[in-house]
Specification:
With about 260 residues, the chain is α/β, with parallel strands linked by helices. It has helices at about 1-45, 65-75, 85-95, 165-175, 175-180, 215-220, 220-225, 250-255; strands spanning about 55-60, 100-105, 110-120, 120-125, 130-135, 155, 185-190, 195-200, 205-210, 235-240, 245. The longest helix has about 45 residues, at about 1-45.
Length: about 260
């Protein structure tokens, strides 16, 4: 009796084993088919336009045009999305003088975004009736076109190219923006006693005599000092060694370079 029960139990299990094997075989077949179609999709993606760089967005640029940035990156419609290495692209874009840094991000399936940070234009060098933007790192750019107007930064006059110009740009960069906007022109006016002397003309009508080296530090006090001077009174604010004000009374008062 016991043997018969065992045989019946085994016979009952055979259909279940067959079903389990069939299901396992089906799952294996589905897996292989999925892999096959996945490979087909990958191949289609890489060889079709879908796998090429599609939409490119550029953000953060104010002075440099999108076209200049894209030309520097050397990205094109036929560039493979996966060949567009972010680090390589960033290095190429940062070769543009005006660009301080770049961040490139890939967005699947074929979008690329470029975020740039430009160097500030801290001044404009005036030479031969043309204006050349000066960046915060002292780099001089090509002259503005006739349609462009230098705004938002002081104009530098009579400045030689080199260390002094770079040092002046660095000093202007340190100034608070409200004070920068109060400056109209900065002349390089060296003398025997002050080889790094400068003359600054302010938008409020005052004239400032200072030095390149400590210009930013001393000019931070300008708003407070200027507020104590009668707006109707014009003259020179000396900020080279000591700090004091002289009215325009005669030519000697406006040209004295050595009584500090």
């Amino acid at each position: 009796m016991g043997d018969k029960e065992k045989v019946i139990t085994l016979e009952d299990r055979i259909p279940k084993l067959k079903e389990q094997r069939r299901q396992k075989a089906n799952r294996r077949l589905i897996f292989y088919i999925s892999i096959f179609f996945l490979l087909i999709l990958v191949i289609v993606y890489f060889v079709s336009p879908i796998g090429h760089v599609g939409k490119i967005t550029v953000n953060g640029n104010h002075y440099v045009s999108d076209k200049v940035i894209l030309n520097a990156s050397q990205l094109a419609a036929e560039t493979s999305f996966w060949d567009a290495d972010p680090a390589t692209l960033e290095h190429k874009i940062e070769q543009v003088k005006e660009i301080e840094s770049a961040k490139v991000t890939r967005h699947f399936p074929n979008k690329i975004s470029i975020q740039v940070t430009e160097y500030d234009r801290v001044a404009y060098l005036k030479k031969d009736a043309q204006f050349y933007p000066i960046l915060e790192n002292g780099e001089r750019l090509s002259a503005l076109s006739k349609q462009e107007i230098p705004t938002g930064a002081p104009i530098l006059v009579n400045w030689p190219k080199g260390e002094k110009l770079e040092a002046m740009a660095a000093q202007v960069q340190k100034l608070p923006e409200p004070i920068v906007h109060r400056i109209s022109e900065i002349y390089f006016t060296p003398t025997e006693n002050f080889p790094k002397g400068i003359t600054v003309y302010m938008n409020d009508g005052l004239e400032v005599r200072a030095r390149i080296d400590d210009f930013a530090r001393k000019m931070t006090k300008y708003p407070e000092i200027a507020s104590k001077i009668n707006p109707e009174t014009k003259g020179i604010l000396y900020m080279r060694v000591g700090t004091y004000f002289k009215e325009y009374r005669n030519e000697e008062a406006s040209s004295n370079e050595s009584k500090e």
